[in-house]
Write a structure and sequence with these properties.
SAM-dependent_MTases_sf, 28% strand, 250 residues, Methyltransf_25, nine-stranded mixed beta sheet, Methyltransferase domain-containing protein, 9 strands, 23S_rRNA_MeTrnsfrase_RlmA, 36% helix
C-alpha cells in the first residue's frame, strides 16, 4: 500500500510540472518493434471515437488529433489533466477532450468508443469492454518487469535481465479474455537504449517511477555516477526498454 501511495503522489507532482513529455531527451533506441500510437493510427478511421486511458499530459493524443472524429483522454491524476488542458489550449484542437477519471469506473455510455488505447497505465478490462462498440479494438502498451534492469540493479532493487515471459502481460491477457474480448494478440520487445548525456538519464529518473524515491537519499547521485561510469560507451549510457503490446477485438 505504501508504494501505491508513493506512486500516486509521484504522478500527481510530475503531472502538474511536466505531464508525460520526454521529447527533450537525447536517446537512441535499437530493437524497438512498434510505436503504440502508430498502431492506433493504422486501425482507426476518421469517423471513429477514440478513448486514451492514462493520457498523461495529452502529448501523444494531441499529436494524432486529425486521425479521428473525437479523441478523449483520461487520467486519474489531477496534475496530469491540468497539464493536458494547457497543452490542448496551446494546440488549438477542437476535437480533443481531457477528463480526470478512474479507468475502473469509466463515465461513458455502453459501446461509445470505436477504439481504446492505453499506454503504461492500469486499466479495467470489463470497463473497456463495456464502453467499446462491437467490432472495436483495444490496444495497450505496458512496461515489462525487466525494464531498466541494470539501473535497478545499481540501486539495489530486484532485477532480471532475461525474462522469458511477463507475469503482467499474462494477467492482462487473461483479464481481457474473461471480459469477452477475442483475437487477443501479445507481442514483446527488449530494446537497447543509449542516453546521450548524464542529464538525460537524470531527467528520466526524476520524471519516471523507475527508482522509487530517487533523489531522496544523499547517495543517489553517487550511485548514478557509478552507474554512468560502468555503462557509458561511444553510443551513450546503455540501459534497456522492455515493453509488451496487447491488441484485442470486441
Amino acid at each position: 500500500m505504501k508504494q501505491t501511495i508513493h506512486y500516486e503522489a509521484f504522478y500527481e507532482q510530475i503531472g502538474a510540472i511536466n505531464g508525460w513529455d520526454f521529447s527533450s531527451l537525447q536517446v537512441v533506441s535499437e530493437g524497438v518493434l512498434w510505436d503504440l500510437y502508430t498502431e492506433v493510427i493504422r486501425h482507426i478511421r476518421p469517423s471513429d471515437l477514440l478513448l486514451d486511458i492514462g493520457t498523461g499530459g495529452g502529448e501523444a493524443l494531441l499529436s494524432h488529433a486529425e486521425a479521428a472524429s473525437l479523441l478523449v483522454g483520461i487520467d486519474l491524476s489531477h496534475g496530469m489533466i491540468q497539464t493536458a488542458q494547457r497543452n490542448l489550449l496551446a494546440s488549438g484542437r477542437f476535437n480533443v477532450r481531457f477528463v480526470q477519471m478512474n479507468a475502473e469506473q469509466l463515465q461513458f455510455p455502453d459501446q461509445f468508443f470505436n477504439m481504446i488505447s492505453c499506454r503504461h497505465a492500469p486499466f479495467c478490462a470489463s470497463e473497456a469492454y463495456r464502453v467499446l462498440a462491437d467490432g472495436g479494438m483495444f490496444l495497450t502498451q505496458q512496461v515489462r518487469e525487466n525494464d531498466k534492469y541494470n539501473i535497478k540493479e545499481a540501486f539495489g532493487l530486484e532485477a532480471t535481465e532475461d525474462l522469458p515471459t511477463s507475469p503482467l502481460a499474462e494477467r492482462y491477457v487473461n483479464e481481457l479474455h474473461e471480459a469477452g474480448f477475442r483475437d487477443i494478440q501479445l507481442k514483446e520487445y527488449n530494446a537497447t537504449e543509449y542516453y546521450a548525456r548524464p542529464e538525460d538519464l537524470l531527467f528520466l529518473l526524476t520524471h519516471a517511477p523507475i527508482i522509487p524515491g530517487f533523489g531522496e537519499q544523499v547517495t543517489d547521485v553517487q550511485t548514478l555516477q557509478r552507474f554512468i561510469h560502468q555503462y557509458e560507451c561511444d553510443l551513450g549510457i546503455r540501459t534497456n526498454a522492455a515493453r509488451f503490446l496487447i491488441t484485442a477485438r470486441k
